[in-house]
Every structure is written in structure tokens, then in C-alpha cells.
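Quick one, C-alpha cells below. Sequence please?
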């Protein structure tokens, strides 16, 4: 790509797809320019103008669908996992980070994962019909009055 503001062409996408670890293809999502997301399963063919692959639409369970996507319609690829900087360096050996950025990234990766605090237990549910609270009784009575009034007005 000569102009950084120019959109990627077929050769650019082919080069990016060639960098993807073959054993991790299933962790990538193709995001199209219209916003649709397609989870990759297997890349069948990469041509200069299109990509043929098997996958599924994000948010759906029907797997094993075939997709023929023009490379010009791809907005970006997303790796659906926590990616360590070393993995990116393996894919892009010429990736240069400033020393401070590299130190910060190493610090983030070395930090233990944050633990979620347990939620306090919920109060036990009261079975229906056993000693309803006064608010429940009032709400029920108000609802019944409105239903009766609506029926009475339509019956006239």
C-alpha cells in the first residue's frame, strides 16, 4: 500500500491472511464494511479479488456455511482472544515498539488476572400465595380495578 489512507487491496489482504496462524484460523472474525461479522472456520481460497471460506455468521449457530466475500468488502479482521505482544511480533517481525510501550505491555501480560468478587446471596424467594406483601396486594387490587373499569366502559 502506497498511500496510508488508501483502502487495502486484494494483495494486502492476501498478505495478512498468510500471516494468520493456521491452527488458530477459527479464532478470527471477518468484519465486513456493512457491519456483518463472520466467524472463520476454514479458508478455502484467497484470490486477488475474493475470499472463499467456511464459517458462520456471528450470533448464529448454523455452522459450516460457505462464504464468497469480495476482499473490497472486508473492513477488518479481528482475533477473538487475548493476544500477547510476542504473538504479534511473531506474525510481524518488523513490529517495533518503544521501550516504554514494550515494558508496559509486558507488565500487563504478567499481571495476574483480576478476580471477580462473589455476589451476595439473594434472599430466598417467597412462594406465590403465601403472605404477600402489602405492596403486592395494593398493586394487584389496583390492576383489578383498572381491568374492571376498562371492561365496564367497553360493555356500554
Amino acid at each position: 500500500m502506497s498511500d496510508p489512507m488508501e483502502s487495502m487491496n486484494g494483495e494486502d489482504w492476501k498478505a495478512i491472511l498468510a500471516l494468520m496462524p493456521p491452527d488458530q484460523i477459527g479464532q478470527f472474525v471477518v468484519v465486513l464494511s456493512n457491519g456483518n461479522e463472520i466467524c472463520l472456520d476454514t479458508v478455502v481460497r484467497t484470490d486477488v479479488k475474493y475470499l472463499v471460506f467456511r464459517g458462520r455468521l456471528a450470533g448464529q449457530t448454523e455452522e459450516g456455511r460457505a462464504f464468497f466475500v469480495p476482499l473490497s468488502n472486508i473492513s477488518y479482521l479481528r482475533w477473538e482472544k487475548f493476544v500477547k505482544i510476542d504473538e504479534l511480533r511473531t506474525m510481524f517481525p518488523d513490529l517495533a515498539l518503544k521501550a516504554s510501550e514494550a515494558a508496559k505491555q509486558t507488565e500487563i501480560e504478567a499481571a495476574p488476572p483480576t478476580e471477580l468478587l462473589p455476589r451476595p446471596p439473594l434472599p430466598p424467594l417467597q412462594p406465590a400465595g403465601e403472605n404477600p406483601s402489602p405492596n403486592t396486594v395494593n398493586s394487584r387490587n389496583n390492576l383489578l380495578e383498572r381491568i374492571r373499569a376498562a371492561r365496564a366502559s367497553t360493555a356500554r
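The two ends are 77 Å apart (CA to CA). The mean pLDDT is 81.
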